[in-house]
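Morning F.,

Quick status update on the modeling queue. The single chain you submitted on Monday has been processed. Sequence for confirmation:
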Amino acid sequence: MQIFFYSGVDCHLCDLAKDLLKQQSQYNDLNIEFIDVRQDHQTYHLYGARIPVLKRQDNQAELGWPFDSDALTDFLS
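Structure tokens below.
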């Protein structure tokens, strides 16, 4: 499954979200693309105030912070 992980440099919340992702049983089956929101003006305006945000490529569903392990499991199901 392709996941876009919108984040930023020195983002403590992004680090917490990465840790939650690594705890998921399907972590090794995920294709995660990390996107720094500051690299693109449009992306920054869409996600800059909400990072970290996960987005599934298959159905375009988004999961924004704050989320816990249960919400992440549901998002990945």
